[in-house]
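sorry to bug you again but im stuck and you know this stuff better than me. below you get a single protein, a line of residues and a line of whole numbers that encode the local backbone shape. mainly i need to know what kind of three dimensional shape the backbone takes. anything you notice is useful, everything is just below:

***
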Amino acid sequence: MAKEEQAFVIACGELARLLGVSLASARRRVDQAAAAAGQRDRPARLAMALEMLEVERGAAPRAPLLDALLNTDEDGGGFIVEDD
């Protein structure tokens, strides 16, 4: 396996981990994006994978946001427990 191909597989693996999809799905996404851009050679596919990886890494972390939205105040979080 060439170094370039190995780097491509590593980048796709990291992208798959961040997206929560399989390696095959991540590779397919990269291949489709590269084909849409008219770039089908190995260096272009590697560049596309690295670009997609950086975009995904730059995305706001979702877990802390969800945690903040699900937390409530200690006094009940403004929920109405009984009608007056």
